[in-house]
């Protein structure tokens, strides 16, 4: 951000002078500043004291040692981290689950590199990353023992549900958005009705229906694994919201552009892929990132249909006689994991916005 | 949210019980073809009944009963697939065939029996609603607690049980209802409530893992009793028989002193005709149930009798040290009993 100069240029303020001007310009401002700083310092101190200074880190420590130390008991993480990260995945095979998580995170990082930002490149990076993830998790090939989806758990499952939802949901959302903008009224209206219907249902009931009610109505060969039904439901939900976000972005693109392109005889697919969508995505970027963040958080809802994702494996981690007292530490650890991903996601969003904004100047 | 789920479950149960009833008589065959029994676990952990150890293995009373049924069928406790289920998911998952049996600290109730189209085994556990109090208050029974503050799980049956029990005693209690168990227990242990009403095992476990178990007492009052049962789909009587007889064998073995350690000796020199028949030393135990004759021997040998299961999950060999109380055998002051092996 650059400041706009309106008056005579002030003398360059020293850091100390700026602090005085910003926070201590009047008695009231001084009092409020001191109070807030004091409060922040106090909170910071309490957290530091609890989380680090008086905390217990040793894996051998149990309740008694932790209580004696008086701070956080990170021993629970030292003992149960594999359960939190990998859930009920077979213990000897958990290295695969770890590699799979790394593969997906690497894919996410790779997709931040502008060099890969063409449709084909980004699609192949994701196809490769996702295939690696799936192969490692499921096995049954290359001498890896088969691990069925119902044994997946923890962070790996959360990542799988999130990425699969995004990968299926995004193209579906684009299709919904385009169909809703169709010039044929019955297509536009039907799509609109579908989107509105999905949006008017709570996600939890969609998941419950997909996981538990569908087996009553559909024959077995349609059903497949419960996990995929749940992902399908969650992708549909994601698509309904994301479609509206994209449509909002499309409305920001001047109609004249499309008409101009039409008059030049540019075919529909190019008008959509090269003119409409890139601008629509740029317009819709903040809302899209928001939607991704929400989707990541909402993966924890699959707990109601019996999946052992991050939050339920955390629950299992402190759900044993030795560790029931340490639930705060486990929740803090899980919150930290969520934070890393969501914070990364929003920084990535901010980076994209800055980059795309350069094209607009 | 819970009520939406409950409605969905009820509706699902209504419509679909008819559909699954025809398929259900095949449960044993389905299980044998699959090669494993599908039994419910928990999304997370339910202390003492279904917990996960450091390596991701399930343990607990409910899980061991699942192991016993799996062993009865396959002679192998590992022929078991534990499927994590949330509470709301229990009945639809049973109806749709995701699991073959529900052993998940669930009581037998009228609506489950009739409206949901389910069927119960005999009770394997008597769950009582009890009250814990801070010892320094010097209470011996709830009648002395007039005017006290009581923590209860929000939206659970304990709310109603506490209200009606207090009314019967003619005392008033100020209730603090909290939904999440960790928060609820924190409220009690931090002294916000004088009393804490909860399903007995949860209460006893909360006390045993607390900082100073000796500072808390369980009052003698029993506010309500809920018999926990194994639950199957209605209409497959033979399948229910297997569940019932597995439980009966566990109890009969305890009553006759047959344990996983002395079972071989007992089989070689059976003290009675009944024990001989149970362990398959004389024929006739398996065929009527569609199982091998030594199924009960396998169960005792590989899983243990009821007492062994209880003690390692909840009792003296566990960290919780819970007494058997009502869940003891009839000859030890409890209400459990085996059926007669003739």
From TrEMBL, chain A:
SUPFAM superfamilies associated with the record: MetI-like (SSF161098)
Intracellular or extracellular location(s): Cell inner membrane; Cell membrane
A GO-annotated cellular component: ATP-binding cassette (ABC) transporter complex
TM stretches of this protein: 28-48, 95-118, 125-146, 152-179, 200-221, 227-246, 292-311, 323-346
BP terms from Gene Ontology: amino acid transport
Molecular function as annotated in GO: transmembrane transporter activity
Keywords tagged on the record: Cell membrane, Membrane, Transmembrane, Transmembrane helix, Transport
InterPro entries with a match to the protein in the record: AA_ABC_transptr_permease_3TM, ArtM/GltK/GlnP/TcyL/YhdX-like, MetI-like, MetI-like_sf
Recorded topology in the membrane: Multi-pass membrane protein
Domain ABC transmembrane type-1 stretches: 155-344
NCBIfam families registered for this protein in UniProt: HEQRo_perm_3TM
Family under the similarity heading: Belongs to the binding-protein-dependent transport system permease family. HisMQ subfamily.
Protein name: General L-amino acid transport system permease protein
Native organism: Alloyangia pacifica
Automatic annotation (TrEMBL), chain B:
Keywords: Signal, Transport
InterPro entries registered for this protein in UniProt: Bact_solute-bind_prot3, Solute-binding_3/MltF_N
Highest taxon in the source lineage: Bacteria
Signal peptide: 1-23
Pfam families: SBP_bac_3
SMART domains, A to Z: PBPb
The keyword Signal is assigned to this record: yes
Name this polypeptide is given: General L-amino acid transport system substrate-binding protein
Organism encoding this protein: Alloyangia pacifica
């Amino acid at each position: 951000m650059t400041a706009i100069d309106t008056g005579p240029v002030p003398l360059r303020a020293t850091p100390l002078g700026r602090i005085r001007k910003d926070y201590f310009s009047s008695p009231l401002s001084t009092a409020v500043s001191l109070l807030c700083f004091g409060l922040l310092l106090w909170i910071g101190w309490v957290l530091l004291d609890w989380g680090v200074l008086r905390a217990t880190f040793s894996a051998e420590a149990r309740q008694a040692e932790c209580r004696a130390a008086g701070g956080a008991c990170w021993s629970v993480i030292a003992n149960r981290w594999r359960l939190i990260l990998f859930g009920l995945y077979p213990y000897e095979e958990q290295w695969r689950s770890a590699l799979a998580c790394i593969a997906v995170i690497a894919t996410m990082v790779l997709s931040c590199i502008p060099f890969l930002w063409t449709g084909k490149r980004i699609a192949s990076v994701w196809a490769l990353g996702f295939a690696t993830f799936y192969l490692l998790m499921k096995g049954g090939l290359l001498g890896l023992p088969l691990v069925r989806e119902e044994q997946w758990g923890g962070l790996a499952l959360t990542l799988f549900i999130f990425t699969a939802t995004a990968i299926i949901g995004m193209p579906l959302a684009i299709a919904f958005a385009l169909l809703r903008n169709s010039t044929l009224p019955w297509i536009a209206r039907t799509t609109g009705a579908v989107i509105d219907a999905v949006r008017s249902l709570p996600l939890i009931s969609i998941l419950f229906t997909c996981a538990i009610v569908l087996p009553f109505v559909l024959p077995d060969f349609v059903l497949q694994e419960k996990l995929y039904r749940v992902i399908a439901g969650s992708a549909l939900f994601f698509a309904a919201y994301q479609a509206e976000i994209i449509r909002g972005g499309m409305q920001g693109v001047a109609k004249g552009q499309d008409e101009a392109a039409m008059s030049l005889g540019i075919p529909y697919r190019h008008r959509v892929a090269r003119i409409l969508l890139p601008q629509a995505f740029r317009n819709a970027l903040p809302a899209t990132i928001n939607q991704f963040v929400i989707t990541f958080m909402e993966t924890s809802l699959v707990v109601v249909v019996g999946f052992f994702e991050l939050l339920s494996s955390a629950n299992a981690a402190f759900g044993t006689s030795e560790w029931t007292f340490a639930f705060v530490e486990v929740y803090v650890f899980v919150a930290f994991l969520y934070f890393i991903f969501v914070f990364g996601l929003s920084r990535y969003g901010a980076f994209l916005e800055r980059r795309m904004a350069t094209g607009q100047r | 949210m819970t009520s939406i789920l409950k409605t969905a479950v009820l509706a699902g149960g209504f419509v679909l019980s008819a559909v699954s009833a025809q398929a259900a008589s095949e449960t044993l065959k389905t299980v044998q073809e699959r090669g494993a029994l599908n039994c419910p676990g928990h999304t997370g952990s339910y202390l003492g009944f279904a917990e996960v150890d450091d390596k991701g293995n399930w343990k607990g009373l409910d899980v061991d009963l699942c192991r016993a049924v799996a062993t009865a069928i396959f002679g192998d406790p590992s022929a078991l697939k534990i499927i994590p289920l949330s509470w709301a998911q229990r009945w639809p998952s049973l109806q749709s065939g995701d699991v073959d049996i529900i052993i998940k600290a669930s009581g037998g109730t009228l609506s489950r029996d009739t409206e949901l189209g389910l069927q119960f085994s005999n009770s394997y556990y008597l769950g009582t609603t009890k009250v814990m109090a801070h010892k320094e208050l010097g209470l011996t029974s709830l009648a002395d607690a007039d005017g006290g503050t009581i923590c209860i799980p929000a939206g659970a049956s304990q709310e109603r049980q506490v209200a009606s029990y207090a009314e019967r005693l003619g005392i008033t209690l100020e209730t603090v209802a909290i939904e999440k168990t960790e928060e609820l227990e924190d409220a009690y242990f931090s002294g916000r409530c004088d009393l804490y009403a909860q399903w007995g095992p949860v209460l006893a476990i909360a006390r045993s893992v607390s900082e100073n178990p000796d500072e808390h007492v369980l009052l003698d009052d029993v506010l309500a009793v809920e018999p926990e049962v194994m639950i199957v789909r209605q209409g497959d009587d033979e399948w229910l028989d297997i569940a019932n007889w597995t439980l009966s064998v566990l109890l009969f073995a305890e009553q006759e002193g047959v344990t996983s350690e002395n079972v071989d000796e007992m089989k070689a020199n059976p003290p009675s005709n009944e024990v001989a028949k149970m362990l398959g030393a004389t024929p006739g135990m398996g065929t009527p149930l569609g199982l091998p004759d030594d199924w009960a021997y396998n169960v005792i040998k590989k899983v243990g009798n009821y007492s062994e299961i209880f003690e390692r999950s909840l009792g003296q060999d566990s960290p919780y040290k819970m007494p058997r109380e009502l869940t003891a055998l009839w000859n030890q002051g409890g209400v459990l009993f085996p059926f007669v092996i003739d």
